[in-house]
């Protein structure tokens, strides 16, 4: 194993969809409703002969906690356990307050952050990635988890961090 990678982001941005794409199986449950309990959060993946463990932190949930406490715990786990963090946002909704909250938590680490702007299902949506520069966590990368676009770019960034 070359490293550990954690996926973080607010509910419903497509973390589990991207997780399943990367590990090549449908282990994490993709939910149309945010906040529904997921099953698998750990997977193993390989890219260009480099093996790594992947954690879908969205599947780690606390009972009776508000959004900020829950996401704070997920980000803390990501920062502690991972060599690289994939921060997933949605190009459909644009930058939200919750994205900004997560970005501020992530700015406390010097671990590699890969900013995946998901739901960029076709080229006409590409310009909507640029507003995510304002999160201050690096260059946004266009991804479509459901169409399998941009996943290779994310994987390249991941293995460069090991
Ligand atoms: P999570 O809560 O961040 O784990 O998000 P999920 O992976 O469960 O996905 C939430 C919703 O977004 C589901 O309805 C997915 O089908 C949808 N979704 C995920 N990726 C994409 C994408 O690339 N494009 C579009 N249009 N929808 C997506
Ligand atoms: Mg999920």
Automatic annotation (TrEMBL):
Q: Which GO terms describe its molecular function?
A: GTP binding; ribosome binding
Occurrences of domain EngA-type G (ranges): 3-162
Instruction: Give the signal peptide, or none.
Output: none
What is one GO biological process annotated to this record?
A: ribosome biogenesis
Q: Where does GTP 1 bind?
A: 9-16, 56-60, 118-121
Question: Would I find Transcription regulation among this entry's keywords?
Answer: no
Does the keyword Nucleus belong to this entry?
A: no
Q: Which UniProt keywords apply?
A: GTP-binding, Nucleotide-binding, Repeat, Ribosome biogenesis
> Could you give the subunit structure recorded for this chain?
Associates with the 50S ribosomal subunit.
In which family does this protein belong, per the annotation? Belongs to the TRAFAC class TrmE-Era-EngA-EngB-Septin-like GTPase superfamily. EngA (Der) GTPase family.
Protein role: GTPase that plays an essential role in the late steps of ribosome biogenesis.
This protein is called: GTPase Der
User: Can you name the source organism?
Assistant: Amedibacillus dolichus
Which classification does the entry list for the species?
Bacteria, Bacillati, Bacillota, Erysipelotrichia, Erysipelotrichales
Q: Parent protein range shown?
A: 2 to 163 of 436
């Amino acid at each position: 194993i070359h490293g550990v990678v954690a996926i973080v982001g607010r509910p419903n941005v497509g973390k589990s969809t991207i997780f399943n794409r990367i590990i090549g199986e449908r282990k994490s449950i993709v939910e149309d409703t945010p906040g529904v309990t997921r099953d698998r959060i750990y997977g193993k993946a390989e890219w260009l002969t480099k093996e790594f463990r992947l954690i879908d932190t969205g599947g780690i949930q606390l009972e009776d906690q508000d959004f900020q406490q829950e996401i704070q715990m997920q980000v803390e786990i990501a920062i502690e356990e991972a060599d690289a963090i994939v921060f997933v946002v949605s190009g459909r909704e644009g930058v939200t307050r919750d994205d900004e909250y997560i970005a501020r938590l992530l700015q406390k680490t010097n671990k590699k952050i890969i900013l995946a702007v998901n739901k960029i299902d076709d080229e006409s949506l590409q310009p909507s990635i640029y507003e995510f520069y304002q999160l201050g966590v690096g260059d946004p990368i266009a991804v479509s988890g459901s169409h399998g676009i941009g996943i290779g770019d994310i994987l390249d960034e991941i293995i460069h961090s090991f």
